[in-house]
Amino acid sequence: MSEGAPRNVGGGEAAAARPEPIHPRPPSPVAEARPRKVSNLVLRLVSAGLLIPPVVFAIWEGGLWVLGVVVVFTLLGLREFYHLIEQKGAHPLRSFGMAAGAALPVVAYLGSEYHATVLMTVVLLAMMVMQLSKSQISEALESISGTFFGVFYVGWLLSHAVVLREFSSVAAGKWTDAALALMHPEVGAFYLFFAISVVVMGDVGAYFAGRAWGRHKLAPNVSPGKTVEGAVGAVLAATLLGLVLKGLCDRFLPDLSAQLGWWATGLVAFTLAVVGIIGDLVESLLKRDAEVKDAGSLLPGMGGILDRIDSNLLAIPVMYYLMLAYTYLELGPPGALR
Q1: How far apart are CA 205 and CA 144, in angstroms?
Q2: Measured between alpha carbons, how far is residue 95 from residues 85, 99, 149 in Å?
Q3: Does the reported pTM lie above 0.90?
């Protein structure tokens, strides 16, 4: 064998049998930490924490404080409402409607709900006259009806918060000395706070009861998220809070709650809870027709002002007229005891 010949002809087979070296894969990329999304409940609580204190303060102070809050809410609510119907192609008289809506609580404050109703008639006549001067008569019907409904739905209904807060003055104007002897001058503060609180508690009860036990749809074509179980939770929570408020007021401010008995308190709270649910569904109907989720985005987690006051838009007037009816049952027809 020559020196240049390979010494081991089997070396190639051994090399072939030797395992290939392992090459580790590159490390997996680390997923970027996404910021945690704040829950809707937390946003609701934050918005409520910012909104409730000034409203409670205004109710306690009464007078121009309540009027100012109502005017601001009316303007913001009308702005959102007219935006809703504009999504449907309507052309409301936006500036006129907002001015008329803001004037209603002012007139109610200076006069009464009767004077606000008279102003509503004047507003309707003025809108029809204004429409005569427009070149596009094809949109007259939707313009007049859309503008006027906004003034009624937001401005006129919400103006009842002003007369409810001044309920003792309203009663004195109808029953004079007998009403003044029956009720405390600040009884309206309790009535307005009672109405708003009961409706808000109804929303809370509906939220948690619906999430925990909601199975049966309440009005699937209008608001698929609302359930019968949530509505029951709303009524129970609102009625319970109404009774609690009555007990607390009897303990610390008895003069303000003396007129309402326990059975009347429970019945009123129950009625307001049902009316609040209807008010919520009415606004859901408007939003669904306009194909939007919220009327606005001013309040994080809650939507817009209209989303927040929709239940009270019906509940506050109902509370006002219930208290008038209750006073009537106690004192007789207005003017009978002058």
Answers
A1: 38
A2: 14, 6, 14
A3: no
